[in-house]
């Protein structure tokens, strides 16, 4: 017996589903389920030293943020700390499934990473493209300052994490020694313009404006008062005080260098340099990029003021992109779908 043909969905149903997916893309991207066992062993040999992982929680706005610290064994109060901020569809697993942890070890720095609210296994249901995340960054840094008073701190952010780092610097200036900004976006407006240019270049402006207005209302409702469509990293860049190393993939279609990283770097008030490599938004970064990051972190976390700014001037042109193997597959099927190609 043949099954009856499925009823064709109406245009209204398709439009509603498409709009709901658009809202989820902004405030509720795919979430990664994992366990602390996926973070690997608590002790790890890196660059001639043993790093010990300590998991902890920070409560911000009644939400528990799941955090981890990797520090040299026997060094409870490190003097150099890197805070890594993941992208909107990733989590703190990114630091152990990529060369990020090893890169920080090259700079002889401790590494701290956490799941933003609404990501990974932290509490919360939504993200805000950096608006509320910047205050979560400050809450975690307050905990870092508690167990490592006087430590020199750099922030390394990717995509939404890079936006959160920039916005944090605007609201809390002079707290960090340097920034690594991987695949940052200029503003939500710029992201929207790029998307329309690719998907519907002939869309009427009045229709686009109507959709954006509805999107802002839906985002405020789902986030209980926050409007991620107002994110503007350009203004934050114009007020920056810490030297920054910008990174961007030449084939990045989500945050193309021409409309995001380059304008941001041009607006950036403090010393900065942009490195463009052969890659996409979520592709593995070439090994030479991590080499430059390690050199920059070591300079920014050094006692000598101005060393990082002077170093950035030597990063004029990047070497040719080198071929690099993709990260090895993750053991957990739930984790394997994550954006962990940092």
UniProtKB/TrEMBL annotation:
SUPFAM superfamilies: alpha/beta-Hydrolases. Residues 322-342 are annotated as: Disordered. Residues 110-191 form the Serine aminopeptidase S33 domain. This is Serine aminopeptidase S33 domain-containing protein. It comes from Pelagomonas calceolata. The lineage of its organism: Eukaryota, Sar, Stramenopiles, Ochrophyta, Pelagophyceae.
């Amino acid at each position: 017996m043949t099954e009856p043909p499925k009823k064709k969905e109406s245009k209204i149903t398709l439009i509603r589903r498409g709009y709901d997916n658009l809202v989820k893309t902004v405030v509720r991207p795919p979430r990664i389920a994992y366990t602390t066992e996926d973070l690997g062993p608590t002790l790890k040999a890196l660059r001639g030293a043993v790093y010990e992982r300590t998991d902890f929680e920070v409560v911000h706005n009644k939400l528990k943020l799941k955090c981890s610290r990797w520090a040299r064994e026997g060094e409870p109060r490190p003097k150099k700390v890197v805070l890594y901020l993941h992208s909107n569809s990733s989590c703190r697993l990114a630091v152990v499934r990529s060369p990020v942890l090893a890169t920080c070890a090259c700079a002889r720095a401790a590494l701290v990473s956490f799941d933003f609210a609404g990501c990974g296994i932290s509490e919360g249901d939504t993200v805000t493209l950096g608006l509320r995340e910047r205050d979560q960054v400050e809450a975690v840094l307050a905990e870092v300052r508690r167990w490592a008073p006087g430590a020199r701190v750099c922030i390394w952010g990717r995509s939404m994490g890079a936006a959160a780092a920039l916005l944090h610097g605007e609201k809390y200036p002079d707290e960090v020694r340097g920034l690594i900004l991987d695949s940052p976006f200029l503003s939500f407006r710029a992201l929207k313009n790029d998307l329309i240019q690719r998907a519907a270049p002939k869309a009427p402006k009045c229709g686009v404006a109507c959709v954006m207005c509805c999107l802002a209302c839906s985002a405020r409702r789902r986030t209980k008062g926050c409007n991620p469509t107002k994110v503007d990293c350009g203004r934050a860049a114009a007020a920056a005080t810490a030297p920054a190393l910008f990174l961007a993939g030449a084939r990045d279609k989500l945050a193309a260098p021409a409309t995001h990283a380059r304008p941001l770097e041009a607006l950036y008030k403090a010393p900065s340099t942009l490195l463009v490599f052969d890659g996409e938004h979520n592709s593995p970064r070439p090994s030479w990029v991590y080499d430059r990051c390690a050199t920059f972190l070591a300079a920014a976390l050094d006692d000598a003021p101005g060393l990082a700014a002077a170093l950035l001037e030597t990063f004029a042109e990047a070497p040719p992109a080198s071929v690099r193997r993709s990260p090895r597959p993750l053991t957990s099927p739930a984790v394997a779908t994550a954006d962990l190609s940092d």
